[in-house]
Specification:
single chain, 433 residues, alpha/beta, Rossmann fold, 41% helix, 12% strand, globular, binds iron/sulfur cluster
């Protein structure tokens, strides 16, 4: 396996076995504490909430998707039985199905993935499997939607557990963003025309297809954590300001690195008049940040970095830009999941890495690169709760249904959103600073 590839294309059985062994060892050595005792049980019963993990205390929006019950046999099956059934179904389906695993997905599921990567990499990876009739996305809802937008009409995108959403994406809903947009449009309507739009909407990939379509319709575009600066450059060439949602931290960290003063980055709090701001503040703004965040990355703090530096002098601290600004400022580097992965893969000398991102990814990197010392800045085991909902039982169920000729849990973006959302994604791909 090349260490420079952006995807881990289903690694050899030997490699997988050695990684699994290392993960088991790491789990034994890991601190005994987890953020929730419920993590020890299977995620079958999490009605009306995000379930155990980093976002369990977040407010769950009305209309949150619910996963119907699946046959008892999948709930009762042992790990060995599920393993045998998944492998058998995968073999029967062959090239007709491709399984995608997000970097943050649990190891018991990722081991069956044909590709492992971030959300946009995975959606593009699926396009390389022209023979695939089914794209089984072991990630969260917005990722499956993006794959549906980019895939052919005759390909079915399947999310093994419909309740696997993203608490950050859920923090920006269509009506709230539309209301914000209407208020801003009214506020800026009398500004002098300088050839640029008063405000350009930019959404992080982690949002619903409805919002991707919204930005496409309103002259804006999508960004990822890898290209947020490029996208903001594009937007500043065409607009006087940017409305950035749903992640305030990615917006703030990126704009700050580009020299935008914090005073010109007010926060928009939904359901408050003018988002809780004075009109003058919004007129002077360069980037209006939505009040959204990732509960996984919000757990990191500068104290953890200070402790890592004390315990491991010379440690290289890399954090994800969804972390709060104080954490990014205290770290040595900040970058996307792919950046973190490449930084470790490219390190030629044994190095100590302290990483600020989701625990499953950090443990997997530690297992894959035993020549380095790699640990998560957060000593408590606290996975992304929504990603955690994809249990091997659900994967076995959707695969065996496909073998039987039935497509369950298909994610379909409505036709009226497809076109505009695709425009927003295409603008992102075409964006040049
Ligand atoms: S890690 Fe955060 S942003 Fe990513 S899927 Fe989980 S809640 Fe959403």
């Amino acid at each position: 396996m090349s260490t420079n590839t952006i995807f881990t294309d289903a690694a050899s059985a030997q490699h997988n076995a050695s990684v699994a062994q290392n993960i088991a060892r790491l789990n034994l050595l890991a601190p005994g504490s987890t953020c929730s005792d419920d993590l020890k049980s299977n995620p079958w019963d999490t009605p009306g909430g995000y379930g155990p993990g980093a976002s369990e205390t977040d407010e769950v929006p009305a209309g949150y998707p619910v996963q119907g019950s699946i046959p008892q046999e999948y709930l009762k099956a042992s790990d060995q039985e599920l393993d045998a059934r998944i492998l058998a179904a995968k073999e029967t389906l062959g090239e007709r199905a491709v399984i995608l695993g997000h970097f943050y997905q649990r190891d018991e599921v990722v081991k069956y993935a044909d590709f492992v990567g971030d959300s946009f990499q995975l959606a593009n990876a699926a396009l390389t499997r022209q023979t695939a009739e089914a794209i089984v996305f072991c990630g969260v809802h917005f990722m499956a939607e993006t794959a549906d937008i980019l895939s052919r009409e005759d390909q079915a995108v399947i999310l093994p557990n419909l309740a696997a959403g993203c608490s950050m994406a859920d923090m920006a809903d269509g009506p709230s963003v539309q209301q914000c947009w209407d208020e801003l449009t009214e506020l800026y309507k009398d500004e002098q025309d300088d050839g640029r739009l008063p405000v350009i909407p930019v959404t992080y990939m982690n949002c619903s297809a409805e919002l991707k379509a919204f930005v496409g319709r309103n002259g804006g575009l999508v960004c990822t954590s890898s290209n947020a600066a490029t996208v903001l450059e594009w937007a500043f060439e065409r607009g006087r300001r940017v409305l950035f949602f749903p992640d305030q931290h990615l917006g703030r960290n990126t704009a700050k690195a580009m020299g935008v003063p914090l005073e010109q980055m007010p926060m928009w709090t939904p359901r408050k008049a003018l988002g809780g701001n004075e009109a003058a503040t919004l007129r002077d703004a360069k980037v209006i940040l939505w009040h959204g965040f990732c509960s996984v990355h919000k757990r990191f703090n500068p104290g953890q970095i200070a402790k890592a530096r004390e315990e491991y002098p010379g440690v290289r601290v890399i954090v994800h830009p969804e972390c709060p600004m104080e954490v990014v400022d205290a770290a040595d580097e900040a970058g996307s999941t792919d950046y973190i992965r490449r930084a470790i893969a490219d390190a030629t000398e044994p190095t100590v890495f302290a990483i600020g991102t989701e625990i499953n990814m950090v443990n997997r990197l530690a297992a894959e690169y035993p020549q380095h010392t790699i640990f998560c800045l957060d000593p408590v085991i606290c996975p992304c709760s929504t990603m955690y909902r994809i249990h091997p039982g659900y994967l076995a169920w959707v695969l065996e249904e496909l073998v039987a000729g039935r497509v369950v849990n298909r994610i379909t973006v409505p036709a009226e959103q497809q076109g505009d959302a695709k425009i927003a994604l295409e603008r992102m791909l075409a964006a040049r600073p």
